[in-house]
Amino acid sequence: MVNLANDWNGPNDPDNPRNFPRIIRLSSMVAVTLLAFTGSFAGAIYAPAQEQIMQWQQCTYEVAILPLSLYNLGLAFGPIIGAPLSETYGRKAVFVVTTPLCILFLLGGGLTTTIASLSVCRFFAGVFASPNINNASAVILDYSAPHSRGVSLGMYYSVPSLGASIAPLVGGFIVPHRSWRWTQWVAILVTGGFYIPVLFTRETYKKVILRRRAIALGLTDAYSSSSTPKHPLRYFFTVLIHRPIHMLLTEPIVSFVSLYNGLIYGLLYTFVTSIPWIFATYYDFGPAAQSLSYLGVTVGTVLACAPFALIDIRFYQRRLQRWKSAHGEGSQLPPQNRLLSALVGSIPLPASLFIAGWAAEYRVHWIVPIVFQGVAMLSCFLVYAGANLFMLDVYGPLYSARGWVGDQLVGVFDAGDGADSLVFLGLGGVVEEEESKTADGLPKTAAVDAVFGRAAATPSATPPCTYVHAPPSH
Questions:
Q1: Which residues form the Major facilitator superfamily (MFS) profile domain (predicted)?
Q2: The whole model's pTM is what?
Q3: Average pLDDT over residues 435-454
Q4: At 177, which CATH number?
């Protein structure tokens, strides 16, 4: 009986989320994925409103873009709130609590009368939207076995990028016919609509499920003695806050992958903020046509799932089977094999950026930059998804999620730098700068992986996958 309070009662335990009925697993994954979509959608839908904001507040472009940049900065700090809440109260509790707070701050942003209050409201909206993005991937991990999570997480990783690319297209049709405030109202409607199905999902976090089962069986003492931190405050700062940040600053693999993924994330938001300006300046597009110019980025994001799934099924899974045949069924394939999609995506990424930028600079037909922006987004996705799966295999779900903070922080500043530089360097110069960052970044990351990759799989010091006073999620 004590075992029931501390671990699953065998592989067929009905309380294990991986043993839930298929319809429950699929519907839950769809529900949390759609809610994660709203996190990036609510941020990027503001992008087409920048010109109206400049006229409304008589401010510069740099000031008008602040509500978008601060929303993304809020996304970077969100995991600091979401991860401890998830550790203590479970996945569903985080969704239930943080989403209404995000909606309230979006409402405040829509009702505001100054750019300062709009920026503050959107920062906090980003903070409370971020746990939805991070928590959704954790739910999918709770449902997925390690060997099969590549495709499911790959599909999920496309969702935030899809939200960020669809939202400006929607906002571009709203702003000319309504005021910029309608970007906030639409974000509220979409977030609220996708929030409701999540209320009917089941808890998936192992520690919380076991705690509830222990209470139901009257085994609270047995569970608490082995699984509850003796010093909750120390556990919060050392395990949930300090150790992931320490990893980000001291583990070469974490630092370089987060830096490179951050550049990619920044590239996405450079597209989001600059596409209207590019096609208005170089091709004389009107407001409606400027919105349609996001189609290349959107289609590239949607299509990216196909090559990623193909790489996972045709290459990774075959390598995994060969490895198990040679080393035994319980052996783990080295994490570096997850980087195959990242290596594939890194080749067309700088090339497509170069072509898209200089094609627009020389006024080549507008379809050329749109197509190659789509290719760039497809390549970004392959790199981002492969790198994140690699981090999951090396460090585990609890610690790999903290890389999101580094990705977001780098991405926010890179996006702001790219948007400002457009004015001074011209499109070709900016895209060549981004192309050089991505072309330089991958060899450095690959070199660090080659030197430190084997060591990263079995880190020294405090092992990142060691859970202190708490059972592993699965």
A1: 28-474
A2: 0.80
A3: 45
A4: 1.20.1250.20
